[in-house]
Amino acid sequence: MQTLAENLPIAFVNSLEHCAGFDRTAFEAVHKAGEKVTSVRLNTAKTQVPANIGGQELSPVPWCPGAYYLAQRPSFTFDPLFHAGTYYVQEASSMFLWSVLSQVAGEPGGERVLDLCAAPGGKSTLLASYFHNGLVVANEVIRTRSNVLVENSTKWGTGNMVVTNNDPSHFQALPGYFDVMVVDAPCSGSGLFRKDPEAISEWSEDNVTLCSQRQQRILADVYPALKEGGLLIYSTCSYSSEEDEEILDWLMKEFALESCPVTLQPDWGIVPVSSPEKKAAGYRFYPDKVKGEGFFIAAFRKKEHSSGTVFVKKNTLLSPATKQEAVMVAGWLQQSEGLFLFKQKETIIAVQEKWRDDIAALQQTLHIRKAGVAIGEIKGKDLVPDHALALSLLVKKDLQVWEFSKENALQYLRRKDVDMGEAPKGWTLARYEGVNLGWMKVLPGRMNNYYPVEWRILKD
Ligand code: SAM
């Protein structure tokens, strides 16, 4: 049976009566109206011009550069630029993270960043763009959900992400390691009721209590990995104060943290709040006030020292590619300077040289699903290029390319054969509107499509 957004549980609406900025009539009306807001954040490293997605005009999301509302939701599946990682479809309120970072973290300069609860990767890709010189560890505890994180970080292509699949407690092996930590905690999810009315039936007061306890456990587990002076950003998509302001009070009582307020523009409609006891600053997003879904966010700076040191054990050091392999790889890269190439089985992986020891340190403590950019596999005298290379910023710009029409680009993304006509033979980058989609090998009279099977479009 379909649930309607207007069927909000009475106990739920009553529980919000005491929340700052809550307007029952407007809140119920906006759920009843059920408007769908669609927004995207551009990958400015791949595209500078707003893509005219679905042929429609875009209007800016005011708190995040390069982010836009779409007048209508197009079929993203049938937009090749979506698969190429030129934009990420992200709920607008949660993009406020950018504004928080720009005010509290300031100019980025090579930070170590953890996104603890990261799948499917909305905030991780935002962090990878913001901290373009940094290293972003995107972690997801649920193994199956970490797959989509690998996919989205590969498509984003910035190369500064490490995807891990660990429990928050495992990060205690990295005391004082991270400069910035984002905990976008699992929550009771009421902020998404308008978008996903099916979730309404799962709401209960008991679940709010359970979520609140789990949020505390997660924060307590990961806290030692934040360095002194480091930034902790906590967010949920719940309206319940037990998961929002009360967590802020709990954090302030439990740890030596300083609340970091941010400045808002009045026309954004975001409600500034302070926690009841410790007066920590937080920000509430109500869909009747902002153009976006329900969201809550707060930032803190750590005032105490974290005890312990991270040592890299010799046996976890990464095995560098040989000189010969490095030469083989160089022809595929825009530039090799500043890159460290290492081998994992037969695959050559590139990371920024400055992160070499960090990747080794992470490898000895965490379960890494993906680090840096996979360049390709050495097969005899040849390199079979990896899909990640095609979508990354590292790939050489003047390799052999073939620009597809939209129809053929979609055929390619379905992993079907495309008639290549007179295309030159050999390894070729499949492109659409100047953006790489993946690899193919053009052979006499046919082509081999190297688009990853698991990511292909299944719909016709
Ligand atoms: N940050 C993501 C984004 O912006 O795309 C959304 C994250 S979602 C709100 C919360 C995530 O926490 C989910 O991916 C969920 O699997 C994960 N999670 C669930 N239980 C957890 C736990 N006990 N510890 C850490 N993460 C957990």
TrEMBL record:
Q: What are the positions of the active site?
A: 237 (nucleophile)
Q: Which CDD domains match?
A: AdoMet_MTases (cd02440)
Keyword tags: Cytoplasm, Methyltransferase, RNA-binding, S-adenosyl-L-methionine, Transferase
Molecular function GO labels: RNA binding; RNA methyltransferase activity
Q: Identify the residues that bind S-adenosyl-L-methionine.
A: 117-123, 140, 167, 184
Please, which domain of life does this record's source organism belong to? Bacteria
Domain SAM-dependent MTase RsmB/NOP-type, chain residue ranges per copy: 23-303
InterPro entries in UniProt: Methyltr_RsmF_N (IPR031341), MeTrfase_RsmB-F_NOP2_cat (IPR049560), MeTrfase_RsmB-F_NOP2_dom (IPR001678), Nol1_Nop2_Fmu_2 (IPR027391), RCMT (IPR023267), SAM-dependent_MTases_sf (IPR029063)
Which SUPFAM superfamilies does the UniProt record give? Answer: S-adenosyl-L-methionine-dependent methyltransferases (SSF53335)
Q: Name one GO biological process term.
A: RNA methylation
Which family does the entry's similarity section mention? Belongs to the class I-like SAM-binding methyltransferase superfamily. RsmB/NOP family.
Q: What is this protein called?
A: rRNA cytosine-C5-methyltransferase
